[in-house]
């Protein structure tokens, strides 16, 4: 699973027995050499899909880690891009590895908890990659409310979601086993390390986004094909903050982009 430059088994064990914040501080120097980093094909597919939904001015990478998602924002945002994470170690690596392009958007980094974002409604696009397993289901309403609060009217919150493995498949049992181990670990050890792969379910997520005030569309990412039942292997969730209603009644929002979104 890991390259020679990745963390050792001992380092992973120490991380797993730490808090989420401390664990990622420890993992940060080698994070990009682990399978936990979002793969480039996913980043490229999301950037391609978002390019048809813009243009965007200011972008925010929520739980940015070492900054892989910032490259996506830099491709679709014209003004500025901001990465926010609560791990000082991850942000340090992100700053060190950032290579702003001449003429590209301004880049900034902020240390903060995604559940208490220190921003005004200043962003046109928020993205997030691979971070939602660190939030318990009961935390999603507050998380989505925070994202809603930092978006400008009409702004988008976008993130990819991989279809769950087929019940009974090796991947299904692997994820089930991982979550079971984490639950036992958190029952026996403090501080807890919240990382569950099976708690972020698309149907529940869609309902919570709507409750937070978003209009939700789903876009298939064709680069990853479809499952035997015809459903996409990977979808892009695009949750748009409703624009203000003008005097004289509601105005139908223009739907940008190519292709037709699926029903959430």
Automatic annotation (TrEMBL):
Recorded superkingdom: Bacteria
Pfam families (alphabetical): Methyltransf_25
Keywords, in A-Z order: Methyltransferase, Transferase
InterPro entries documented for this protein: Methyltransf_25, SAM-dependent_MTases_sf
Listed GO MF terms: methyltransferase activity
GO biological process: methylation
Coiled-coil residue windows: none
Keyword Phosphoprotein belongs to the record: no
Methyltransferase domain sequence ranges: 60-155
Gene3D superfamilies per record: Vaccinia Virus protein VP39
CDD domains per the UniProt record, alphabetical: AdoMet_MTases
Keyword Transferase carried by entry: yes
Region annotation (Disordered) ranges: 242-264
Matches recorded under PANTHER family: METHYLTRANSFERASE (PTHR43591)
Protein name listed in UniProt: Class I SAM-dependent methyltransferase
């Amino acid at each position: 699973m890991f390259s020679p430059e990745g963390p050792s088994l001992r380092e992973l064990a120490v991380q797993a027995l730490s808090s989420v914040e401390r664990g990622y501080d420890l993992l940060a120097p080698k994070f990009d050499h682990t399978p936990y980093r979002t793969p480039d094909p996913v980043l490229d597919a999301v950037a391609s899909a978002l390019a048809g939904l813009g243009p965007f001015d200011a972008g925010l990478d929520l739980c940015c880690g070492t900054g892989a998602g910032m490259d996506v924002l830099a491709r679709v945002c014209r003004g500025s891009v901001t990465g926010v994470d609560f791990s000082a170690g991850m942000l340090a690596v992100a700053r060190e590895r950032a290579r702003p392009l001449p003429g590209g958007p301004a880049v900034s980094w902020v240390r903060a908890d995604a559940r208490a974002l220190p921003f005004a409604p200043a962003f046109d696009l928020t993205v997030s990659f691979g971070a939602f397993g660190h939030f318990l289901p009961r935390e999603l309403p507050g998380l989505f409310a925070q994202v809603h609060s930092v978006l400008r009217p009409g702004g988008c919150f976008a993130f990819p979601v991989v279809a769950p493995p087929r019940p009974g498949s090796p991947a299904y049992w692997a994820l089930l086993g991982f979550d079971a181990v984490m639950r036992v670990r958190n029952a026996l050890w403090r501080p807890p390390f919240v990382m569950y792969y099976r708690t972020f379910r698309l149907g529940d997520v869609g309902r919570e986004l709507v409750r937070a005030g978003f209009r939700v569309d789903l876009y298939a990412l064709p680069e990853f094909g479809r499952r035997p039942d015809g459903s996409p292997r990977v979808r892009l969730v695009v949750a748009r903050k409703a624009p203000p209603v003008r005097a004289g009644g509601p105005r139908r929002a223009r739907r940008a982009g190519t292709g037709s979104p699926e029903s959430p």
